[in-house]
Amino acid sequence: MFKNLLPKEEKYFEDFKGMIALIEEMALHTEKIFQFDDQQSHIIKMKPLEVRCDELSYKITKRLNKTFITPFDREDIFALVKRLDDISDMLLGATVRVDTFHIEKRLIMLIKLL
Fold it and tell me: What is the reported pLDDT for 56?
């Protein structure tokens, strides 16, 4: 009876899927970077993906603060969004370090020999 009076936000799951898809794409680019497959083009593609993840994270958090009834516990939603954002930050950080320190295939092979 009272279910119709209180709005329930269902768009969280769509946004979670969106963040996960962006992270998956970032992971594929990171894999290509560490395979030394045209590193620069993959590094350039990483930052916009991470920014879109940050935007989704902000959007979800903003909605969370405005929504009265959530699909599951709001602390869990916040923790999930925070973890997903942390993963995107770590992937970007790894690729930036590859670029900053000019890690090349020769160096990786040298490390494997040690």
Answer: 97
Query: Which residues are bridge partners to 8 per DSSP?
Result: 69
Residue of 106, 23, 11 whose CA lies nearest to 64: 11
Residue 29 neighbours by CB distance under 10 Å: 21
d(Cα 40, Cα 104) in Å, to the nearest integer? 12
Residues of the chain with pLDDT under 70: 1-10, 105-106, 108
Instruction: Give ∠ CA 44-48-51 in degrees, rounded to 5.
Output: 140
- What confidence score (pLDDT) does residue 9 get? 60
**What is the per-residue pLDDT for 42?**
93
Long-range CB pairs of 40-47, under 8 A, 24+ apart, other chains included: 40/99, 42/95, 43/95, 43/96, 43/98, 43/99, 46/91, 46/92, 46/95, 47/92
Q: How many other CB atoms sit within 10 Å of the CB of residue 112?
A: 7
